[in-house]
């Protein structure tokens, strides 16, 4: 029997995935290059491609892959795949939902605590000893008891709410027009119908929504101005949801106390961006979901989902199930 060819574009987060693909009967090709041409050269006989953010799967690449059945993203985000192009060609796209719950909620709290306690300043000024003279002139803040607004009460937002409720006795408000009503009840979130009303009430804002046409640029100059003076903003979701020019201005004016930024648009953010001039910002390079534990769980799941699809099974998390509806469907029989 011919082994189905699986192309992995950039190594999987836990490379045990490469071994698992081979054990599951695939012919595996790992392309460890950002060059799309190098990947395209492998696509004419490929049945599946697994792609790691930020590499992009475009319509041209799909045209080079006449036998392609399934595209798997590395995590939850699917903004690096041309979904309409895949659907048009009958190619299924799958993602890996829910794996950010543990690491991204923890990372968000780490950023909150780091910003509120000015961790970057504290570290630098301990190393150069300037902190000893200056430490009583710097304001530090407590998370316990804060009013926290969370945009997007999904896997990550709900887990963050639980941790903030239980661990930090916060009052948690949520904005999410599409949430399943049971989730805020179990996570202890008071849902607010209008975003503006939430922004006026909280001193901490955490962005945990998915990127859609509605959430793109959702938090911009006007929304930041509605937050009370001295608020903290953390974005661990997607860069395009938060306007970083407006955030830099908010920090410069003192309206915003500090910010934690794991995701930017573009990634990386150009070194000339004014946000880098603000000192109470902690940046991380989109690493919130990359813990060792989650990398292993997610990789194992990802391999099993791709192989299930190639074996004619049902995907757990199809992104464009309609790809299998039409005449061009490439669903294995
Ligand atoms: N930084 C990282 O490493 C990392 C890792 C995993 C996930 N993420 C990102 O975190 C975010 C949340 O992931 P998740 O696993 O919780 O996904 P999820 O699908 O469980 O939750 C997303 C939530 O956003 C809500 N939403 C949709 N439109 C909205 C709108 N207009 N206003 C408010 N809320 C809206 C949805 O209803 C849903 O509840 C996503 O953007 C994802 O890409 C980041």
Outline the fold blueprint.
Blueprint (H helix, E strand, L loop, with lengths): L4 E5 L6 H8 L3 E5 L4 H5 L5 E6 L7 H5 L6 E4 L9 H6 L3 E3 L6 H16 L2 H9 L3 H4 L12 E5 L3 H14 L2 E5 L6 H6 L2 E2 L3 H7 L2 E4 L13 H6 L4 E5 L8 H10 L2 E6 L19 E3 L8 H19 L23
Parallel strand pairs: 1-2, 1-3, 3-4, 4-5, 6-7, 6-9, 7-8, 9-10, 10-11, 11-12
Helix pairs in contact: 1-13, 5-8
Bound molecules: nicotinamide-adenine-dinucleotide.
The site of nicotinamide-adenine-dinucleotide has 33 residues, from helix 8.
Explain what the structure shows.
By secondary structure, the protein is of the alpha/beta class. It folds into 2 domains: 5-97 and 292-324, Rossmann fold, CATH 3.40.50.720; 101-283, Rossmann fold (3-Layer(aba) Sandwich), CATH 3.40.50. Helices cover 35% and strands 16% of the residues. The strands form 2 sheets. A 7-stranded parallel beta sheet has the order 8-7-6-9-10-11-12, with helices on both faces. α1 packs parallel to α13 and α5 (101-116) packs across α8 (155-168). The two termini are 16 Å apart. The model has no long low-confidence stretch (mean pLDDT 97). Nicotinamide-adenine-dinucleotide (NAD) is lined by residues 75-77, 98, 100, 104, 151-157, 175-179, 208-212, 214-215, 236-238, 262-263, 286, 288-289.
């Amino acid at each position: 029997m011919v082994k189905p060819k699986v192309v992995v574009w950039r190594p999987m987060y836990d490379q045990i995935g490469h071994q698992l693909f081979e054990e599951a009967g695939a012919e595996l090709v790992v392309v460890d290059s950002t060059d799309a041409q190098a990947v395209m050269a492998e696509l004419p006989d490929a049945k599946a491609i697994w792609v790691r953010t930020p590499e992009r799967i475009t319509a041209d690449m799909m045209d080079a892959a006449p036998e392609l059945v399934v595209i798997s993203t590395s995590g939850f985000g699917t903004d690096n795949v041309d979904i309409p192009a895949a659907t048009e060609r009958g190619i299924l796209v799958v993602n890996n939902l829910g794996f950010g719950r543990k690491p991204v909620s923890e990372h968000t709290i780490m950023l909150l605590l780091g910003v509120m306690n000015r961790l970057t300043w504290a570290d630098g000024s301990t190393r150069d000893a300037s902190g000893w003279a200056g430490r009583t002139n710097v304001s530090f803040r407590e998370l316990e008891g804060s009013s926290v607004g969370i945009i997007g009460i999904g896997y990550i937002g709900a887990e963050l709410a639980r941790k903030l409720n239980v661990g930090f006795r916060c009052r948690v408000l949520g904005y999410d027009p599409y949430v399943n009503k049971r989730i805020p009840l179990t996570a202890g979130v008071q849902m607010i119908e209008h975003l503006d009303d939430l922004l006026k009430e909280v001193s901490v804002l955490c962005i945990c929504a998915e990127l859609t046409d509605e959430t793109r640029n959702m938090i911009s100059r006007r929304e930041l101005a509605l937050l009370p003076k001295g608020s903290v903003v953390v974005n661990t979701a997607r860069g395009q949801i938060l306007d970083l020019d407006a955030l830099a201005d908010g920090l410069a004016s003192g309206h915003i106390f500090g910010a934690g930024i794991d995701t930017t648009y573009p990634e990386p953010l150009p070194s000339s961006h004014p946000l880098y001039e603000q000192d109470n910002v902690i940046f991380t390079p989109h690493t919130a979901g990359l813990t060792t534990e989650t990398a292993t769980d997610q990789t194992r799941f990802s391999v099993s989902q791709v192989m299930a699809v190639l074996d004619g099974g049902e995907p757990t998390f199809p992104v464009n199930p309609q790809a299998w509806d039409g005449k061009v469907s490439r669903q294995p029989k």
